[in-house]
């Protein structure tokens, strides 16, 4: 089973997670920029974070056989903080970087006027630079937030096929399916979606434009939920081709619109070999016996 996790926050995860992910079939990820868990206080903290996403995290993932890509944006939670607005000015230079495959996460948290403004600004930026957009739907009042999200997307002029509306559930999927946008589902241990519910949605709506992710971060989450969803699909009677469509072909098709995906195997990693743990010596990283 080959897996491309289209939404996972690896900066919050350990190298042990990379090892387990590789052994479970994960070969590529996209890491959307997001809230760190506490307020950022200046644009400099965004610059440092964006630099880490396009540099260190991409390098770290490769040590474990996984291709790392990212999205860059001002997330909706921080859109309400005037100290963070300066980050909008630095986005264009990062959106031109190799490995940046979309603008995001953007969208709504509390559906404030400030979030409206930042959302519209970043959708226009995605449209102008020719990148897809990763849109976060709010955790509270999700149905109304999804409707409002789709209204803003329609008004922006960006094609719906270049937008994934993420963190969906049973109450919001139909509206997004009918809009022509891609549908994103985060599979979590105790909240959002689980494997069983995801399988039921796939039975009802099919596999077209469906993206399944772990959205794993610093909270209670599981970076292997993509693999577990694939197994749940097989157990429910879906074919291996169906699983490949959802866990590999769909994220490749969506993010491939950026023209920046790098999906060739990482040199030194064979498909039939487990990944070796990394060891650190000074400024170099060695991969066990492969060093």
From TrEMBL:
Domain of life per record: Bacteria
Keyword set includes Hydrolase: yes
Keyword annotations of the record: Hydrolase, Metal-binding
Gene3D superfamilies (alphabetical): Metal-dependent hydrolases
UniProt GO molecular function: hydrolase activity
Coiled-coil intervals, chain numbering: none
UniProt keyword annotation of Heme present: no
Family, similarity comment: Belongs to the metallo-dependent hydrolases superfamily.
Designated name of the protein: Metal-dependent TIM-barrel fold hydrolase
Species for this entry: Agromyces ramosus
Highest classification ranks of the organism: Bacteria, Bacillati, Actinomycetota, Actinomycetes, Micrococcales
């Amino acid at each position: 089973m080959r897996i491309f996790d289209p939404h996972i926050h690896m900066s919050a995860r350990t190298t042990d997670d990379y090892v387990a992910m590789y052994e479970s079939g994960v070969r590529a990820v996209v890491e959307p920029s997001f809230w760190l868990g506490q307020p950022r206080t200046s644009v400099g903290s965004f610059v440092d974070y964006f630099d880490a996403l396009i540099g260190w995290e991409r390098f770290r993932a490769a040590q474990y056989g996984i291709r790392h890509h990212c999205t860059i944006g001002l997330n909706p939670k921080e859109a309400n903080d005037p100290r963070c607005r300066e980050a909008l000015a630095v986005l264009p230079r990062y959106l031109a970087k190799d490995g940046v495959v979309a603008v995001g996460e953007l969208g709504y948290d509390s559906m404030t006027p400030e979030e409206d403004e930042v959302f519209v600004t970043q959708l226009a930026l995605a449209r102008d630079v020719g990148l897809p957009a990763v849109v976060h739907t709010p955790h509270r009042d999700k149905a109304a937030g999804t409707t409002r999200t789709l209204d803003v997307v329609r008004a922006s002029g960006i094609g719906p096929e270049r937008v994934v509306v993420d963190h969906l559930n049973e109450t919001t999927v139909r509206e997004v399916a009918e809009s022509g946008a891609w549908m994103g589902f985060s599979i979590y241990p105790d909240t959002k979606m689980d494997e069983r519910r995801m399988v039921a949605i796939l039975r009802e709506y099919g596999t077209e434009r469906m993206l399944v992710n772990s959205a794993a971060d610093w909270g209670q989450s599981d970076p292997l939920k993509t693999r577990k969803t694939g197994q749940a699909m097989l157990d429910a009677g879906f074919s291996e081709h169906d699983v490949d469509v959802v866990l590999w072909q769909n994220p490749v098709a969506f993010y491939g619109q950026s023209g920046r995906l790098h999906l060739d195997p990482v040199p030194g990693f064979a498909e039939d070999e487990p990944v070796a743990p990394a060891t650190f010596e000074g400024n170099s990283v060695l991969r066990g016996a492969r060093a």
